[in-house]
Design a protein that fits this description.
Helices cover 22% and strands 37% of the residues. The chain is built from eleven helices and 22 strands. A hairpin with a 4-residue loop joins strand 20 (403-420) and strand 21.
């Protein structure tokens, strides 16, 4: 009979090369303090050496190590508002800090870094915490106010961040990796300012646990956001000053890379072309409408409408395809001398109950231009949580004398596509119709031939694929 010790623990293969974590030196720290206008005796090298030693001694020491450090550089609002997407690369968003060394450094082909950067991005991480069942990530936010000299405030910043990092990790971060985290962490400010305000800053680390040169027990990402304000920070060293520090730590560790891949797909499906965007900009991710039922595949999944996750074993989307028109009324007024009126209550929404709701959070847009007989029809819909219930409205139209008119409602075929997170397979579960709120009148009946999707001019402007398609 096997004991607990005999049961093999699954390992994650990863190729890294050993490195020596960067140290915070008194000379560099002095230069950073001088650059923000501090030239008091507290910035002497001998004093700073003592401050560094006192601070590092307070760091816990653990087995989790780092294999890369980066900062998120968010897309500029002007770019997003102008284009609706960003053409910047993933490593323009998650920018490596190559001049800071860690316990390990990746080879060029080191895996998992794109997926970890996706998960670690604050908006993505928070969305997983709220909507992804079974997400094991941890978030901790803390604010601290104090009184002391400027040097004490900066030293307290280091200790506070280190303590908060330790509080969210199951195992502590390696002491030398922790010190490397604070390399070049003091950001320049206007030397003429009376107060020091760092602004909202972040520092992120790729994590590895138990790496033996070929495999590890776990990989992960750690994101530290911090904001330090020191009032009258240039006062002489004996003067006390008020300071405040806000710190938010987000971290996720994975012993199974399949779980990381699932969450990566989940995020790409939700955010689509808005991947890595700040959610303060109300952009609408695009949902694709296909000419016919597309294959049961990852590409179809990512381009479709996310549905709420209802269990830990699967995630689902709604696939839209084959737009067409349904006749909902006709007035033949060819033998009349006066106009004729027609009213009809029209219901929009799904024609079947699929048991799941459209995912909350962002709004989604779907648009398609298609040809039906001699009719050219453009359907534009905003897919939000309102469509979890059908919508009804009464419409009226009139037909002049000696005329005939047909009334059509646009609809889309739809199907629930499920991704099974146990066997990693995609499969269709249910099919039905989505009756849109697009109404079209025509002087002639639409024939029975299938509709044909034409090039949507609005979509043709954005010829470059969104960011996540180029990862």
């Amino acid at each position: 009979m096997k004991t607990v010790q005999d049961i093999p623990i699954p390992k994650i293969p990863i190729r890294l090369k050993a490195d020596t974590p960067s140290r915070v030196t008194p000379e560099e720290l002095k230069a950073e303090l001088n650059s923000i206008g501090l030239y008091c005796s507290e910035t002497r090298v001998e004093n700073l050496r003592r401050y560094i030693d006192e601070t590092v001694k307070q760091f816990p020491d653990g087995s989790i190590q780092g294999f890369g450090m980066f900062e998120y550089d968010r897309p500029k609002q002007e770019e997003l508002l102008e284009k609706g997407y960003t053409s910047r690369d993933i490593w323009d968003i998650a920018v490596p800090l190559n001049d800071i060394h860690n316990n390990w450094q990746p080879y060029d082909a080191a895996p998992y870094m794109a997926q970890l950067s996706n998960v670690g991005y604050p908006e993505h991480f928070d969305y997983l915490m709220k909507h992804y069942m079974g997400f094991s990530g941890v978030k901790h936010s803390d604010g601290d106010k104090g009184e002391g000299t400027t040097a004490e405030a900066i030293k307290d910043q280091f200790v506070k961040i280190a303590t908060d990092i330790s509080s969210v990790l199951i195992k502590d971060l390696n002491k030398y990796q922790m010190e490397a985290t604070f390399k070049k962490i003091i950001k320049p400010v206007d030397p003429g300012s009376s107060d020091y305000d760092s602004g909202d800053l972040s520092r992120c680390i790729f994590l590895v646990d138990g790496y033996d040169g070929t495999e590890c027990r776990a990989i992960g990402v750690l994101n530290v956001e911090y904001h330090l304000i020191i009032k009258n920070y240039k006062e002489k060293k004996s003067a006390k000053t008020n300071y405040s520090l806000d710190v938010t730590i987000r971290t996720a560790l994975y012993t199974d890379t399949d779980e990381l891949e699932k969450q990566d797909i989940f995020l790409k499906t939700h955010f689509k072309g808005n991947l890595f965007f700040g959610m303060d900009i109300p952009l609408k991710p695009e949902v694709k409408i296909y000419g016919e039922l597309p294959p049961e595949a990852a590409d179809t999944f990512i381009h479709s409408l996310p549905l709420e996750q209802t269990d830990n074993d699967s995630i689902s989307v709604m696939v839209f395809y084959a737009p067409d028109l349904q006749n909902i009324g006709c007035i033949d007024n060819t033998d009349s001398a006066g106009s004729a009126q027609y009213s009809r209550t029209v219901t929009s929404g799904f024609t079947f109950t699929f048991g799941q709701k459209i995912a909350g959070g962002a709004k989604y847009a779907a648009g398609v231009l298609f040809q039906k007989a001699e009719l050219s029809v453009n359907i534009e819909i905003s897919l939000t949580e309102q469509w979890n219930s059908s919508q009804s409205e009464t419409i009226s139209f009139s037909v002049p004398s000696k005329s005939k008119a047909f009334l059509y409602q646009g609809y889309l075929q739809c199907a629930v596509l499920e991704y099974n997170m146990k066997n990693f397979k995609y499969s269709y579960k249910q099919k039905g119709r989505f009756m849109t709120n697009m109404i079209k009148t025509a002087p002639v009946p639409s024939d029975a031939k299938p509709s044909v999707i034409k090039t949507n001019e609005k979509t043709a402007e954005n010829t470059k694929p969104p960011l996540w398609e180029r990862l």
